[in-house]
Design goal:
The complex is a heterodimer of chains A (140) and B (108). Chain A has 140 residues and is of the alpha+beta class. Chain A is 36% helix and 29% strand. Chain A has five helices and five strands, in the order βααββαααββ. The radius of gyration of chain A is 14 Å and the shape is globular. Chain B has one domain: Udp-n-acetylmuramoylalanyl-d-glutamate--2,6- Diaminopimelate Ligase, Chain: A, domain 1. In chain B, 39% of the residues lie in helices and 19% in strands. Chain B has a five-stranded mixed beta sheet with strand order 1-5-4-3-2, with helices on both faces. In chain B, α2 links the parallel β2 and β3. Chain B is globular. The chains are: A alpha+beta (140), B alpha/beta (108). At the A-B interface, α1, α2 and α5 of A face α2 and α3 of B.
Chain lengths: 140, 108
Amino acid sequence: MADPLRFHYKVDGSNFTSAGEASVEVKKKLRQLGFSPETIRKVSIAMYEGEINMVIHARGGDADVFVYPDRIEIVLADTGPGIADVDLAMQEGYSTAPDNIRTLGFGAGMGLPNMKRNSDSMRIDSTVGVGTTIYMTILV
Amino acid sequence: MTVGELCKTLDLTPFSVADEDRPISGGYIGDLLSWVMGRAESDQVWITIMSNQNIVAVATLADVAMILLAEGVCPDEGVANIAASRGINLYGSKLPAFELATRIGSLI
């Protein structure tokens, strides 16, 4: 199989207000590549939520997007505090975001559930004190 | 109904006019950004009182027709410029969200 197209982004953990730039960039690229609006929407939402999580919880990280003819894979890797209880974190409404983040409209405990809902498969590798890597696949 | 027609009919305040001809198919009201991301649909008017820069990214990714700030809320400094540079329609109104929704509902 041909090598996938790969887009790499550094997610800046210090600048909360500009968070989402990588997702907006990916959306633009997928649109240029001619993917359907539904696919683009799923990738955009899944990636944005992940990007926001990295900024809120992990001082940023790395985002990689691999574009295959039949699927899009997103890998979000950070060296943040890790997730102690992944099952709990996956519950809608559960959040450990600080109050200043909530006043900006985040921290509703919808991030990880939104990522799962918009991807066809999702895996979370997390070790407390080491970091978190999330793999998401969206079928085209 | 287009964004431009809605602006005229409801006497909205334009903060960023990117595409007045964009059609409006409905609306969504919400201030929790993840909720909006997951539930607002393409071509809807998104009514909110959130005014920070993150609303531009959410509007871009959810592909809404316009952001409509209710209750006389103004965008934070620099947000209107960012919306314009991203091609996002950003308007405001003194009316509360419910009032805006009922009026938009009767117009589309």
